[in-house]
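User: Before I run my own analysis I want an independent prediction to cross-check against. Here's the chain; please return only the structure tokens and, at the end, one sentence I can use as a sanity check.
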Amino acid sequence: MSLKIKQEATYAASDWWKWSVWLDGTAKELDQVDHVVYTLHPTFPTPIRRVDDRESSFRLESAGWGEFEIYLSIFLKDGRTRKRKHWLRLRYPEPKRVVAKRGMPKPEVGPQMPKVFLSYGVADAQSARIVREALRNRGFEVMAADDMAAKGVPFEQQVEDLIRRADAAIFIISGRPSLWVMKEIDMALDRKIRHIVPVIVGDVRPIPPRLEAFKAVHIEDPDQTEAVINGITDLIMGGKKITAG
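Assistant: Structure tokens:
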């Protein structure tokens, strides 16, 4: 059985996409399927979804802000089960190009804004969404691990490529950082990124030792994230590393 997984994703607004996934195969293959169970990221309120609709090719429709691996259990009518997985890919729409008419002056080009790598754990997704949107509204290019979907390229290598391109890195931390966030901290330090900004949400003590040498932005409550964006951007644009000791 050569069933494959197809997807569609449409950007709505504010780092939010509407998306769907479904089975792709011949009519004969799809007729053998009884139902499909999709397992989404555990942050979804209902991460396990069952779809029985053959007419839609067992399409699942949902929405969200980040990319992740979807696991499928395909239950056949003869009692067998097939396993598949699919990396949900989300892309921002391409910006419209403005073509100057003959005789018209070319538009002025402002200073190139820094590229910012944004690192955070699942618990800080809401704060990260606010920071990402605010920085993009100010003209920054913001990159994060959940933006990636290159086929055949190891995940860690893709993160390293993003960090290599970055002029600044922001680490949002509200508790003990995950092992992967710690890995991204190490990558950024090894890369000697010019501006590194720890964003500490709540009363986190101590912050990761490898970030203690950098000036941090403190947010008492996640709802206050928007209010400190100016402080974050000031550090990205002109902040200097504070030498420990």
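Sanity check: The longest strand covers residues 4-11.
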